[in-house]
Design goal:
Keywords: NAD, Oxidoreductase. Belongs to the UDP-glucose/GDP-mannose dehydrogenase family. This is UDP-glucose 6-dehydrogenase. The protein is α/β, with parallel strands linked by helices. It contains 20 helices and 14 strands. Helices cover 45% and strands 13% of the residues. The strands form two sheets. An eight-stranded mixed beta sheet has the order 3-2-1-4-5-6-7-8, sandwiched between helices. The protein has a six-stranded parallel beta sheet with strand order 11-10-9-12-13-14. The protein binds 1,4-dihydronicotinamide adenine dinucleotide (NAI) and uridine-5'-diphosphate-glucuronic acid.
């Protein structure tokens, strides 16, 4: 089938590339000329494992094209996917200006009957808004249908998710259109769930809000565990064994970040507010997340008192491993606060340094390796659980740092290893490990 995809962020690019991989002829359209030039050469503008190989192959086989020109991109397209951003406005609601612009682009440039599929995460009712804008601005006498097809991929495993997702949600009022979009997706081999348009739009927000709730919940439990001397890892494992709860998304840490959970939770609070419903639970989730992002600063202050002139190394900047995406990364909030408190901040990330430079405060020192970050630091914070950090030789902390104090926001190391390597180790929801502690012997025995 001939398909156009508008917008080549994570969602648009992965959608376009994987649709070409399953046998469609796809043209991706973006208004960013530099990005399009890169993509035409098979270079991915985002770091996403496996994506570039698929891009290159499908470009070579003439299944995948890129353009900045909407008319050229829509030419003969039977299906048009909308995958532009829906960022957060100041009041927390979703900014639909990119979506509205694309609706006008479509109305002015389509030359045949077409199905318009919205992949972007949009508030309930937006697909009808898109339909209205297209109708009002149509230039040619053609017919079109609208379909909601929200995206559930995760950054860092987006290609894997495209072929192994749990479900594809198709929301439509017209059975024929729903059936065609189901056929388009056939070769992904993923179960399809069909529903009406508004419910499909809500499934996306409710899913993200639920996952965010799970994270804030386990983070609160971890804070209580710390105070009571219970161990969050065991608690999460024990909870997850109940199939009704499930073991995923129970990793306590420094709060969720990224381009979607923070904005989608706030947008859903607004969506509910618009129909006079106060979503109290979700408001709590957002508040807990904001508090959790500061938890490592509290731990540092408890240990040092003042942070002025302390050299703090930071390992990990991206909001999660395997991506260079810095959108709403907890590292931004934490580093800003460290600088405000007068600390000297040295940071390292295996992939996200260049994107981090665009968003972090001036005054940050960028290191090029773990060793350089550790060297003569008074404490090290771990903010992203990259494999490179999980595999660090633990003896390096004592060898390279002024004092081996590690405040780990992602529970990368086991307590026994930290203890054996003389690390003063603070993590999330677990016992503190500290050679200075008088309980050292008994603690050591209990861990062994
Ligand atoms: N990033 C993610 O992992 C996921 C994102 N989503 C949702 O998907 C949507 C897109 O998100 P991202 O891929 O992160 O977007 P993004 O913001 O990274 O990229 C959007 C792209 O659209 C382009 N664009 C804007 N207006 C355009 C126009 N009129 N014509 C052509 N191109 C245009 C921009 O130049 C940009 O390259 C959002 O609604 C988001 O909530 C859903 C699931 C996962
Ligand atoms: O709508 C979206 O954009 C996407 O949002 C998330 O995907 P993503 O943001 O890429 O990453 P996640 O793996 O969900 O992680 C989000 C944040 O939660 C944090 N997290 C995740 C899991 C966990 O157990 N604990 C935890 O703190 C991560 O560190 C990260 O900061 C969802 O998982 C996707 O299904 C959805 O499509």
């Amino acid at each position: 089938m001939k398909i156009a995809v508008v917008g080549t962020g994570y969602v648009g690019l992965v959608t376009g590339v994987t649709l070409s991989e399953i046998g469609h002829c796809v043209t991706c359209i973006d208004i960013d000329q530099t990005k399009v030039e890169k993509m035409k050469k098979g270079i991915s503008p985002i770091y996403e494992p496996g994506l570039e190989e698929l891009m290159k192959r499908n470009i070579r086989e003439n299944n995948l094209f890129f353009t900045t020109n909407h008319r050229e991109g829509f030419k003969d397209a039977e299906v048009i996917y909308i995958a532009v951003g829906t960022p957060e406005k100041k009041d927390g609601s979703a900014d639909l200006s990119f979506i509205e612009e694309v609706a006008i682009n479509i109305a002015q440039n389509i030359n045949r009957n077409v199905i318009v599929v919205t992949k972007s995460t949009v508030p309930v009712g937006t697909n009808y808004h898109i339909e209205k804008i297209i109708k009002q601005n149509l230039v040619n006498d053609i017919k079109f249908d609208i379909v909601s097809n929200p995206e559930f991929l995760r950054e860092g495993s987006a290609v894997f998710d495209a072929f192994n997702g749990d479900r594809i949600v198709i929301g439509a009022d017209n059975n024929k259109a729903a059936q065609i979009i189901e056929e388009v997706n056939n070769n992904y081999g993923i179960p399809v769930f069909k529903t009406d348009i508004k419910s499909a739009e809500m499934i996306k927000y409710a899913s993200n809000a639920f996952l965010a709730t799970k994270i804030s919940f386990i983070n609160e439990i971890s804070n209580i565990c710390e105070r009571l001397g219970a161990d969050i890892e065991g608690v999460a494992q024990g909870m997850g064994l109940d199939n009704r709860i499930g073991s995923q998304f129970l990793n306590a840490g420094i709060g969720y970040g990224g381009s979607c959970f923070p904005k989608d939770t706030k947008a859903l609070i607004q969506i509910a507010g618009n129909v006079d419903y106060e979503f109290e639970l979700l408001k709590g989730v957002v508040k807990v997340n904001q508090k959790q992002q500061r938890i490592l600063i509290e731990k540092l202050e408890q240990r040092f008192g003042e942070l002025g002139n302390k050299v703090i190394g930071v390992l990990g900047l991206a909001f999660k491993p395997n991506t260079d995406d810095m959108r709403e990364a907890p590292s931004i909030v934490i580093i800003k606060e460290l600088l405000n408190k007068g600390a000297i901040v040295k940071v390292y990330d295996p992939i996200a340094i260049e994107s981090a430079k665009k968003v972090l405060e001036p005054g940050v020192n960028y290191a090029t390796s773990v060793d350089e970050t550790l060297y003569k630091s008074d404490a090290v914070l771990i903010l992203t659980e990259w494999d490179e950090f999980k595999e660090i030789d633990l003896s390096l902390f004592k060898q390279l740092m002024n004092q081996p104090i590690v405040v780990d926001g992602r529970n990368c190391f086991d307590l026994k290893g930290a203890l054996e390597n003389d690390i003063e180790y603070y993590s999330i929801g677990r016992k503190e490990i500290n050679r200075k502690s008088e309980e050292l012997e008994s603690l050591s025995n209990s861990i062994r």
